[in-house]
Amino acid sequence: MVQENVDKELMKAFETDAEITFIRARAGAGKTYLSVAYALYRASEGDRVAIFVRTRSEINQALRIAREIRSRLGDRAKELPTMIPMTGKEALCRFPPENNAVIKWWCRIIDCEFLNHKINDEFRDLIQNQQFSSIREYFIQARDMHLCPYFALQLAASEHQTIIVTHPYLINDELFERLGERDILIIDEAHNLLKPITARINARELKGSLRDLNDNEIQNMIINLWRRGDRHKAMKISRVWSFTSSPGEVIRINHEYIKVLPPDELIRERMRAARKIFVISSTLYPINMYKKLFARNIKAEIKIIPGFLRNTKTKIHVILKIGLTSRYKERSEKTFRMYAKVIQEIVNKLNKTTLVFVPSKEFASNLYRELRWTVVLDETDLYQIESEHVISVMGSKISEGVDISIGQKEPELVIIAGLPYPRRDKEYLGIINLYTKYYKIDARTLLTTMETSEMLSRLIQTAGRVGRKKKGAVIIIDDRITSIPIKIPIYSNIKELIASLRKFFEKSHVS
Ligand code: SF4
Domain 315-506: what homologous superfamily? Predict the structure, then answer.
């Protein structure tokens, strides 16, 4: 039932009786594959399972895996339930609004005819028996049966044994309840919930209070305002309602209020509903701090698959340790020149389609001055590029894209020039301040831990941009990475690094 390259230790990590289990497994260990396989298996034993992921493309990836598992099983797949997705109205509405501020009330505002076509038995039968491999395919099936895809999937999800949804369905109580009762929750990419901001609003806008009104009165007010043409006011009330009804602790940052939900509060609440919770990520580091932030004073099991990045025959990660770092204090013209010189040498010698990722836009423009390579932040712009070498920023859409190409070519080399530590801006420090009081943790320790964790998440995400269909190599150039137990080869000599990568690329090809 499980693909060959799934880590055996990771398989064992799912065999637990603990109420809450933290699993840290390196990228490429097969976390998503195992989560899907485990969810389907448990569902076949009668459990109702929900998997929570970060993005819609991660949902699609899990659906493809579910389909692959079923096709491998042949006739035996009939014993397994299918897995169905659920996501926001903005992706599943047949006539989505241009502005999402009033999306909650959109169906009533436009008096949508599909409010009377939510689900039928034909749709239920179809998705019970057939595994589709993308949200879009479910949308099309529902649309072609003259149903509202949003309500059809939502009602089906509440009835279905195995579902996959995005993180807001875990965070927001109202959305969570729509999933129906759940025995097992699998929270993937859990590092993303380290400091969930559930709402934000301009401080002046919050002044008008909706305290004395119930949901129905607010709903009618918004719908009437919109229909009378006072859309500005309708959106304003909707934003205030959305802020006040979102979960979390309020903090003020300059002219804004934001709501932050400490993960421990969220997990405690969800433990009331579910028998078992898995908290999974490749970057739960250091794990004890995660345990404290997500499940303070709760008995939990911790499973760690060592290392963060996995070297295989088709994908290699290495560190080049030559006295260079992107540390804010050390950034100077000389640093950028040295980075540019090393990058140019590697690219000249290896001659591969290359993406260079740097920690910030400012860093990118400094590197551009030295290399004159195009700086690209959006995935779609990459297709028009004629050059084979591009600079981009970690945390941009390109660093998160699934299958990316430069021109028509899949990149084979990623150079990570500097570590993507987050900026210590007012919002970041405000959240640290809140957590320091909430968790009673020393502020400095918390700050360093959260920064390291976020840096690692971005780094690992970025490293995933190569080695998908073709062979791929990732070079990290920043000495600070050697203080983290990342368990990949370290080179302190550029010639040796190039020789080793040449050998890697010359050995049998995968296409
Ligand atoms: S009923 Fe469905 S299609 Fe109609 S507005 Fe609402 S979400 Fe959109």
Answer: P-loop containing nucleotide triphosphate hydrolases (3.40.50.300)
